[in-house]
Structure formats: structure tokens, C-alpha cells
Amino acid sequence: MSGLDVAVTRLLGMLLLLFACLLGFIALSDEVSEGETQDFDERVLRALRSPEDPAVPRGPWWLAVSAEELTSLGGVTVLALVTLMVCGFLALARRYRTLLLVLVATVGGAGLNLVLKRFFARPRPSVVPHLTEVMTQSFPSGHAMLSAIVYLTLGGLLAQLAEHRRLKAYILGLSLLLPFLVGLTRVYLGVHYPTDVLGGWVAGLAWALLSAVMARTLRRRSPALRAEAHKPVE
Fold first, then answer.
1. How far is CA 166 from CA 87, 161, 174, 184, in A?
2. Global confidence as pTM
3. What is the signed CA dihedral for 65, 190, 183, 59, rounded to 10 degrees?
4. What is the pLDDT of residues 153-166, one digit of tens each?
């Protein structure tokens, strides 16, 4: 298979996955809006708390501490810091066009999350006490969605710099693992329903895929951006 055939196949695969994510999010948000998932969501949250005291999470004491520490990996402060550090690296490497793509993908994703939260306006869970502070609406989970956007976008960027397949697989694996762990902590801490997190994952993946497709399209049309992508890091 030629290089062009491989590129076309990858692009089609990304588009199909993007389409599946969009359909999945529409179906999930419809079920959430109609209250069809409420019973399931509340059962899961109750199952993660002590029957005697819903303020006490199940598991050893260190699990709650670890969850609070891990959940910060999906917070705005940490994600903004990670993004700025990567942008600093791109600036030093004189990859200004790639830097702009990263900013558009991350800032645009954050804006989309705010729009979706205000549109659905789902209240935070009240069935169990929250183990950490929250301020915005519940659906979709901002931590799950933004961590998926940032880590997948940056992971895809780093994977392009890796030469060996095992390194690419390792980077992309970590990019998927971090949002997964962040999402689980939001449910464990009682600040999100499971469907909030699932919606955040799906929406975040869809935005990351859309950003990747747009970046590929721009790279094919822009010789300067294509040359920048293949330029060795000095």
C-alpha cells in the first residue's frame, strides 16, 4: 500500500470515528435530557459510598486522597499549564503554525465545553455529598472533556515526533489513559454522574478528532505547515 493510500485510509478512519462520536453524544445527551439515565446514575454514585454514611467513599483512606490528586490533572489550571509548556517548546522550536493549531484546538474545546454545559444546564449530583468543590453545570464533565481534548491533541503532536511505532503507541496510550483516570475520579468524588463523564469523553474525543482532521487538511494545503511538521527539532 502506497503512502497516499495509507494517509487516505487513516483519514477515512478518523472521519468514521468522528461521525460515530457525534451520533453517540447526540443519543446520550437525548437520554440524559429526558431523565432516562437518572436512576442508573444515582445507583452508581450510591454504590461508591458507605451504606451507613453516604459522605464516606468506599475503599481505603488513600483511595479518596489519590482521587483528589488525580482529578486535578483534568482541572483548568493544570491543563492550561501543560498547554503553555508545550506551546513554549513549539515557540522555541520555531513551529509557530503548529503552536497556533494547538491553541485553537485547546481554547476552542474549552469554549465548546462551556457552551454545552450552559445548553444542557444539568444540575450537579445531590444524591451524595461532594468530596471536592465544583462551580459549573454537570453535563458534560469539563474535566473529562478538556483532559481528552488537551492530552489527545498534545499526544497526537508528540506521536508525530516519535519515529518508532512502540513509542507512538506508548504516547497515544498515555493520552487515552489520563482522561480515563480523570473521568473515574469525578464519579468517585461524587461531583459528576457517570453519563456526565461519558459525555465528556465522547465530546472530547470528537473535538480532538475534528482538530486532527483539520490539521491534516491544512498540512496538505500548506507547504509551509507541511515542512514545519517534518522539520527536525533542534
1. 25, 13, 12, 27
2. 0.93
3. 50
4. 999 888 877 778 89
